[in-house]
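note to self: dont lose this again. the chain is below, predicted strucutre after it. 178 aa total, dont forget to put it in the shared folder this time
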Amino acid sequence: MAIRQGLLALLSQGPRYGYQLRAEFEASTGATWPLNIGQVYTTLSRLERDGLVAPGEQDDQGRVVYTITEAGLAEMERWFSTPVAQSDRPRDELVIKLAMAVAASADVRPIIQAQRTTTMRALQALTRAKRAGTEGADGAAQRLVLDSMIFHAEAEQRWLDHCEAVLTASPQTQERQR
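---
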């Protein structure tokens, strides 16, 4: 997850302290990727170390307001202009689970069915959230996040159907069913 660059993007809109960054990050993503406040401050410390943000003075409540630096703006622009490669995305645990189940000669059908049910429930919840609407300045960002998650869930359902068809046609699967 691009927390580092996400915080830079938020700071490009003006100075903020950690709790503001956390709230705005979660609002922008429709709270689909909650952040631990410790993670925010650890990331801010690293950004400061790397010269991408500068801390201001503490306010009367002890909060430090951070400002993006020129180097931080350049880093954010680099991130925005660089496509995300498939190889840069985390490993898909479901793919690994099914591959290992096949390699272990396990019955994959209940695994696929359990995942299909879970994915369908998630798809329904995402669709309800999208129908509920998104308002305010973060509405468009939230909608994009929800749309992406819906498309991923739909693609997962199609992929599970494909897995089932491939495994049903597999000679090893046919022999195990006898």
